[in-house]
Amino acid sequence: MEQGSRREDVRPSAPCASVGAPPQALATARVPEQARGEHTHGEPSAPRAVQRHSVRGQILDALRSALMGGELVPGQVYSAPALGARFGVSATPVREAMQQLAQEGAVEVVPNRGFRVSERGPRERAELAEVRALVEVPVWLRLARTVPAARWALLRPLAQATVAAAATGDPAGYAECDRAFHRAVLSLSGNAQLVAVADDLHRRSQWPTPGGPVARRADLTADASEHTALLDALVAQDLTAVQSLVRGHVAGAEG
């Protein structure tokens, strides 16, 4: 965000309706310049009422959307009280949401100031992609050998949901649907710990890099189309195609 009076919208992630995502999130709100930890003087603008039952969850959705959209800038420090004032809530749910984001590697706690948006460079993203491939590829191949075609057909709506989310051009909404599809596939392994670890790695790989471009609609659409191609290869039990597609799909998440 720039210095001065300009303020940027914090948009909540669009729910992935086909995968049981949470209800409609926070109406469009804005993060004022005062929300940064280094600029906490002055009065925040008028608060907006939070309409969802889970205040913490709603704020978490809004912050994730802002992170994915580049509205919360890597390296900048943001103050929980000022963000809370802007959302019309106390600082407590904001801090709780930020603590969750800290566990996910999206922000870092800055004592007595707030939370700094993590700066993740190309090397770290490449390392995450490598670890994801090591975790996921063997599982996808095992599932390709053992899961019947009828089970894969049940996942078609999830793949279609990622295509629909990509068409909106909303990176945060797409990210939720993307991970939901991968969780559904990996859950067929019956290993809940693997699913949790893979989902955490996946989420970390989705956070944008400092100065990097926000994912465009065309990028999201191309990524979503790979889910359909993966299902086709799984149904056909084409192990060579599955391995190639999963490796390429995971590597593409770096960019």
What does this structure look like?
The chain is 56% helix and 6% strand. The two termini are 22 Å apart. It has helices at residues 55-68, 80-87, 91-103, 122-146, 149-153, 156-168, 171-187, 192-206, 217-235, 239-252; strands spanning 8-10, 29-31, 77-78, 107-110, 114-117. The protein has ten helices and five strands; from the N terminus they run E-E-H-E-H-H-E-E-H-H-H-H-H-H-H. The protein is mainly alpha-helical. A hairpin with a 3-residue loop joins strand 4 (107-110) and strand 5. Mean pLDDT is 79; it is low at 1-15 and 17-53. The protein has a three-stranded antiparallel β-sheet with strand order 3-5-4. Strands 1-2 form a two-stranded antiparallel sheet. Helix 7 (171-187) packs parallel to helix 9 (217-235). 39% of the residues are buried.
Question: What descriptive keywords fit this protein?
Answer:
6% strand, two-stranded antiparallel ribbon, 255 residues, disordered N terminus, elongated, 56% helix, mainly alpha
